[in-house]
């Protein structure tokens, strides 16, 4: 290449600028680490860049990219089982960062303890506000699997949150 970009570089750059922050936030909720979230987001967007010219349905692009982010996270977890954290009965101590309420830290810590597949369902359903069918499409599973994983994930999250759950009002008693 002679220094000239591809014809779709401008279009991809605009998409990247508009969506990278949101995708990184989703990846962070999945993995609980900003550096790892950045890696997941970069990997997903690199995959998108490579197939950008072939994407015929740009109207569903956000859903497709979100699916790539979630699948990248799940694939990374399968490859890195040996690096998993050991769960304990106590929440870790965190310093509250600028402007971030303490309950957000407690919820993120509890979310990190939820198994990855259930966490992916919770993030897609409640953070990204996707419906059951959209979540199923993003994860490549059935709507019934989404419902059961959401129920199990919410139960695990409630158990982790313990007495903090009632005060936070993060998820309603029926999940949603």
Uncertain residue segments = 94-99, 168-176
Tally of separate helices: 8
Overall average residue pLDDT:
78
Number of strands: 0
Overall shape: it is globular
Architecture of the largest domain in CATH?
Orthogonal Bundle
The radius of gyration over CA amounts to 18 Å
Please indicate the count of domains: 2
Tell me the name of the CATH homologous superfamily of the largest domain: Winged helix-like DNA-binding domain superfamily/Winged helix DNA-binding domain
Helix/strand order: HHHHHHHH
Helix content percent band: 55-70%
- Tell me the major beta sheet: none
Family: Belongs to the sigma-70 factor family. ECF subfamily.
GO molecular function: DNA binding; sigma factor activity
Domain RNA polymerase sigma factor 70 region 4 type: 106-157
Domain RNA polymerase sigma-70 region: 22-82
What does this structure look like?
- By secondary structure, the protein is mostly helical.
- The protein has 2 domains: 72 residues; 76 residues, Winged helix-like DNA-binding domain superfamily/Winged helix DNA-binding domain (Arc Repressor Mutant, subunit A), CATH 1.10.10.10.
- It has 8 helices and no strands.
- Helix 6 crosses helix 7.
- The radius of gyration is 18 Å and the shape is globular.
- The N and C termini lie far apart (51 Å).
- The C terminus is likely disordered.
What distinguishing features does this structure have?
single chain; 176 residues; 0% strand
Q: How would you summarize the topology of this molecule?
A:
Layout: H1 9-31, H2 34-51, H3 61-79, H4 102-112, H5 116-127, H6 132-139, H7 143-161, H8 164-168
Helix pairs in contact: 1-2, 1-3, 1-5, 2-3, 3-6, 4-7, 5-6, 5-7, 6-7
Keywords: DNA-binding, Sigma factor, Transcription, Transcription regulation
Family: Belongs to the sigma-70 factor family. ECF subfamily.
Domain RNA polymerase sigma-70 region: 22-82
């Amino acid at each position: 290449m002679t220094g000239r970009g591809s014809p779709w570089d401008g279009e991809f750059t605009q998409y990247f600028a508009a969506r990278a922050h949101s995708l990184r936030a989703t990846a962070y909720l999945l993995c609980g680490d900003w550096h790892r979230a950045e890696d997941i987001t970069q990997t997903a967007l690199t995959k998108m860049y490579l197939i950008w010219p072939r994407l015929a349905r740009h109207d569903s692009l956000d859903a497709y990219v979100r699916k790539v982010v979630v699948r990248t996270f799940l694939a990374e977890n399968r490859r890195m089982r040996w690096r998993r954290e050991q769960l304990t009965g106590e929440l870790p101590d965190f310093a509250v960062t600028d402007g971030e309420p303490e309950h957000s830290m407690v919820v993120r810590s509890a979310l990190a303890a939820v198994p990855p597949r259930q966490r992916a369902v919770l993030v897609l359903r409640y953070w990204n506000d996707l419906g059951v069918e959209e979540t199923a499409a993003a994860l490549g599973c059935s709507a019934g699997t989404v419902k059961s994983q959401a129920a199990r994930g919410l139960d695990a999250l409630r158990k982790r949150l313990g007495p903090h759950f009632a005060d936070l009002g993060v998820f309603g008693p029926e999940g949603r």
